[in-house]
Amino acid sequence: MTKLSLRLPPLALLLIQAALAGCGDQNKAAQTAAPPPVTVALPLSRRVTDWDEYTGRFVAVQSVEVRARVSGYLDAIKFTDGQLVERGQLLFVIDPRPFQAALDKADADLRREVSRQELAVSELARATKLLEAHAISQEEYDTRAQASRESDAAVASVRAASRSAALDLEFTQIRSPIAGRIGDRKIDVGNLVSGGSSGATLLASIVSQDPIYFEFEGSEADYLRYVRLSQTGARPSSRDAANKVFVKLMDESSWTHEGKMSFVDNQLDTNSGTVRGRALLANGNGVFQPGMFGRLRLIGSGQYDALLLPDEAISSDQSTKLVLVVGGDGVVVPHPVALGPKVDGLRVIKSGIGPDDQVIISGLARARPGAKVTPQPGKITAIADAG
């Protein structure tokens, strides 16, 4: 067999050589490409205060069950279910006629006894003069003096009965003992109402509206931390000072409702290991209602200097939180950090970085620990009143 040799034209050889040279140049360019760009910034330094958050309920400052003091048939209802009522406003009327009759009788008895008293006083005065003239015996004088004293007692007794009857008549008009919102009526006109100190008929209930309490429970650990802060003077105890609080409702994203602490219980619950706290808030617009849920923020520390970063600059390696710091040579170095609460939309970094560290705040996906990056200056901005 004849051996064939493949010969290419000179022009084709030149083209192949140029192509191979171009691939080599691309490889060299790839090897010398600049490191990926990232945005870096110094941590925001600020003097901050920690806030603790609790879930709780709104509770009325005053809550009253309206019951009758006297028994009788309900004659009238003077309110609309669910309306706001003022202190002293007329709510129910019990048939007053039997009580008016009892008062009239007591007044008549009082007039009779007053008349008898006047006679007894007159007879005692005459007996005094007769005794001085030795016209009657000492025994007769003592009898008339005794009759005068008995008359005084009888008048006092009947007068007390008259006042009692007047009170019973007054109690037929049942008035609101507090200002607030009344619930629905529990009984209708024409029904017999039982009065008295026990077994009295429940007529309605009233809860005050403004101001209103917010009650919550804190753990024993929280309670001890507050005690230590008070002992060192970093934060006053809520028992001694009206520490500021902020509340938000379930449909709100910011802490817009301001109040103050008003009470801390004197003992911890042995079953739950928690202590009850209470804050006082204004409720002029009536948004808060007893029984509503809410979230409360309570000052949890004294002021201290802290470094803050956005949450976007923080990554996770299992249970460890990391931030990426660019060194002077442009190499990315991971720093494990301890996180604190959020303040103005930024996360407090309790340890792991310094105020002069260039932290990557954008472009984390392009940064690899130990690799070089091209840092570009950025800025961290706080968001006032962020939730």
Please provide a written account of the structure.
This protein is α+β, with helices and mostly antiparallel strands. 27% of the residues lie in helices and 34% in strands. It is built from four helices and 23 strands. The protein has helices at 10-31, 97-132, 138-171, 220-232, and strands spanning 37-41, 44-48, 51-60, 63-67, 72-77, 84-85, 90-94, 173-175, 180-182, 192-193, 202-207, 212-219, 244-248, 257-264, 274-281, 293-299, 304-309, 315-317, 320-326, 332-343, 346-351, 358-362, 374-377. Strands 1, 2, 17, 18, 19, 20, 21, 22 and 23 form a nine-stranded mixed sheet that branches. Strands 3-12-15-14-13-16 form a six-stranded antiparallel beta barrel. A four-stranded antiparallel sheet has the order 4-11-9-6, with no helix packed on it. α2 (97-132) runs antiparallel to α3 (138-171). The radius of gyration is 44 Å and the shape is elongated.
